[in-house]
Design goal:
By secondary structure, the protein is α/β, with parallel strands linked by helices. Helix content is 45%, strand content 16%.
Length: 263
């Protein structure tokens, strides 16, 4: 069972940033990744629709013999992780949430910025995080429509992307934010561009590494961690297979087998 793969999914290619953290921390694990690009962005879909997609993903990964599941998507976690944990109590399941707690601990100015999708910022779970961890800091939120779609197209450095991102970052800096949460799994791919826009003293925080640590902890608790040689990942997409295959090396610096996800 320890040699079984781990299932990872996102609404698109953003979860590849989480996959990269898992590969770095757990290089001996076989990974299965589904980018549900045919239904992106989840942030504009109803919670019922997202729960349905989460259920389909879980069923697919169970059929593939996955020993654990990672929801590499904030929006999917908000809508679907509770149902999945109820339906599969025997399965290690790791979700995502914006890094409010570490950001609140890291800020020196007492002002934390959040770049996220509208769906994440409007969610009850995000409100609960603020109530729990951000009572002593000011949190400035910034919805970022359009960023996910540009990253999905493999655009990480165009002038249009730069202008869009600058328009989202500038209000956070003007408000005095010295710590910025990257509240969507797509956004870590924009770190090189963001570092050109923010002061060197500004901290950029995402949760990919924390997800990898939590996955490792759960695997160790269950005696499921793989050993031996490093392993590769297999990929599926519900969108355009050739486009996903072209985007993969841009974001992950590796190629892989990409198949059509028909669910």
């Amino acid at each position: 069972m320890s040699e079984a793969p781990i299932g990872v999914f996102d609404s698109g290619v953003g979860g590849l940033s989480v996959l990269a953290e898992i590969q770095q921390r757990l290089p001996h694990e076989s990974l299965l990744y589904v980018g549900d690009c045919g239904h992106i962005p989840y942030g504009e879909k109803t919670p019922a629709f997202i729960r349905q997609r989460c259920s389909l993903m879980a069923r697919f990964f169970r059929e593939q013999g996955a020993k654990a599941l990672v929801l590499a998507c904030n929006t999917a976690t908000v809508a679907g992780v509770a149902d999945l944990r109820r339906d599969y109590p025997d399965w290690p399941i790791v979700g995502m949430e914006p890094a409010v707690k570490p950001a609140a601990a890291a800020t020196r100015s007492g002002v934390v910025g959040v770049l996220a999708t509208t769906g994440t910022l409007q969610s009850a779970k995000f409100a609960a995080l603020l109530d729990r961890f951000a009572t002593d800091v000011k949190v400035v939120t910034q919805p970022c429509p359009g960023l996910v779609e540009m990253i999905e197209n493999g655009d990480l450095r165009s002038n249009a992307l730069r202008q869009l991102l600058h328009g989202y970052v500038e209000p956070l800096l003007a408000a005095g934010c010295d710590t910025i949460i990257l509240g969507c799994t797509h956004y870590p791919f924009l770190k090189p561009l963001l570092l050109q826009m923010v002061p060197a003293s500004t901290s950029l925080i995402d949760t990919g590494a924390a997800v990898a640590r939590q996955l490792q902890r759960l695997l160790d608790e269950s005696g499921l961690r793989a050993r031996g040689a490093s392993r590769e990942a297999l990929f599926w997409t519900s969108g355009d297979v050739s486009h996903f295959a072209r985007t993969l090396p841009l974001l992950l610096q590796q190629t892989g087998s990409v198949q059509r996800f028909e669910y």
